[in-house]
Design brief:
Elements (H helix, E strand, L loop, with lengths): L5 E2 L5 E9 L5 E13 L3 E6 L16 E5 L4 E10 L2 E5 L9 E5 L5 E3 L2
Antiparallel strand pairs: 1-3, 2-3, 3-4, 4-7, 5-6, 5-8, 6-7, 8-9
Length: about 110
């Protein structure tokens, strides 16, 4: 039986999410807490406590998150859509969830598989 999805968050983790732009076109951030990070073979869903905004977690540092595999390879996760405190991510290749070690967020935060 293959794993259909992984929940990576056992305890909420602090993060920053962009939610818009200032007059100069720079990203504007809010502090938030990631309460759920569900990883699936072709996508991921990040849920945070900013229910009134479309959070973007892929703006601090690199523009994608990486799924780190047991063999050391990394599979990029790209932003898809966001709204209501939820950001959807997509990947271009299928992920074997049983081989996942962690997800590396663009700001350097590593979320390990529990």
């Amino acid at each position: 039986v293959s794993v259909e999805e992984l929940e990576l968050i056992t305890d909420p983790i602090p993060a920053k999410a962009a939610y818009g732009w200032d007059l100069q076109g720079n990203d504007v951030y809010k502090d938030t807490v990631i309460t759920s990070f569900i990883l699936r073979p072709m996508s991921a869903v990040i849920v945070c406590d900013l229910e009134d905004v479309a959070p973007n977690f892929l703006t601090v540092g690199d523009r994608c998150a990486y799924v780190v595999m047991k063999d050391g390879s990394k599979v990029p996760l790209y932003g898809d859509s966001a709204g209501g405190g939820i950001q959807m991510l997509q990947t271009e290749q299928e992920i074997d969830l049983e081989q996942v070690v962690s997800v590396l967020m663009p700001d350097g935060t590593e979320i390990k598989v529990p």
